[in-house]
Amino acid sequence: MAVLATLALFFGTVFAVCCVLLAAFIGSLLYMVVLHHRLKDAGLHREEVLLSTPLPADADLPHVVIQVPSFNEGPVVRRGDESAAALDWPRDKLHIQLLDDSTDETAETVRQVAAELRAKGFDVVALQRTDRSGYKGGALHEAMQKTPHDFFAIFDVDYVPSPDFLRVCMRPFFAEPNLAFVQARFDFLNPHENALTEMQMVTLDAHLGIEQATRCWAGHPLPFNGTCGIWQRAAIDAGGGWKGDTVTEDLDLTYRGWVKGWRALFLTSVGVPGELPADTATWLRQQQRWQDGFRHVSMRMFPEILKSRSITWGAKGAALLHLCMSLNQPVLLIGVVSGLLAALLAPSLVPLLLTLFVITVAWVIFCAATFLRAGHNFIRGGEIPPLEFGAVLLRFVGGQIATVVRSLGVHAKKAFSKPKPVVFDRTPKKGA
Fold this sequence. Notes:
Structural class: alpha/beta
Strand content: 5-15%
Strand order of the largest sheet: 3-2-1-4-6-5-7
Helix content: 55-70%
CATH class of the domain at 49-277: Alpha Beta
Oligomer: single chain
Distance between the termini: 62 Å
Radius of gyration: 23 Å
Number of strands: 7
CATH architecture of the domain at 49-277: Alpha-Beta Complex
Largest sheet: 7 strands, mixed
Shape: globular
Number of helices: 14
């Protein structure tokens, strides 16, 4: 009996620790909302000033390389490639690289579009690889070696920038030449296609409008979002270049450059519409890739951040808390299993365990609801009424539960199978 009591106490303690960790992780979102309101006026003013920086005459503008990665995305590849050519920049200084790793008919479409654009006088090259070594990161790295120019605008093929994107987003580089990259905000082509896309719109608006904007304003590490941004070659090289050994090459390069002293800018006022996955299976695969990539980068960068002598402890704390968000799922799974075991071994602990559980869930829902509504109000002006927004929140909670359940299945399967190399699971789009 003493052994069972000790085990029950152990699992109960683990459960309590997990509850505290989850409360801290989710509580950081509430902190970001508070910080956002504190820094918003100054942050938006700085953005306005930077975007009013005058551009040089066309003859003095730098060369810009547009990179459009694609993989088996037939329905959207023509639209994405042609939108790159529609960007307003001197024709002799606009260079387009179509980075295509496709293994289906998309490859022929890319070659055809490239030929059509070249016939119209554009400098367009289709860089098609026979293998996907390094996936998107590998394609970006190889393409960089084929051009001498210093600025790279990256667009996933389903995003459609407005023609003035470069004229707007290149301005901050002339005001602050040491920016690593300028990141525009995602907007959406199909936010109201169904309940899933509406939930994603609300979630991503909070991530971009609250998290990303506030990190930029506060001087915290600003992760690149993988698309709709412009990088300087010097910053990419300083960070060690694009790598394909994680499935979130954007987050990886961001942190490698950040520990070298490079900082970035997020633009809340510049939206670039793209397509949201409209079916649950595709969305869940995307969430799994993002979670896995976060963990890969966390394991790589924790030691680098901690041992850096040029980063203040406050900045280290912000970076580590951000990367620790990738531990949400493992902590939740450990907590649930520990709580169930403690309840089975010592039924007398059930009231205490339930109290902890209810308090944690209530706190998590409060923080998530505040965070999501703040992002929606900031980006969309509160266009979804409160009652309808409650339904969106319920879908968000259901989506998080679904991602945890799927993640558990994926990792359980991995535990009982031979180790496999990291695979970049591209999110397919329909071209809606």
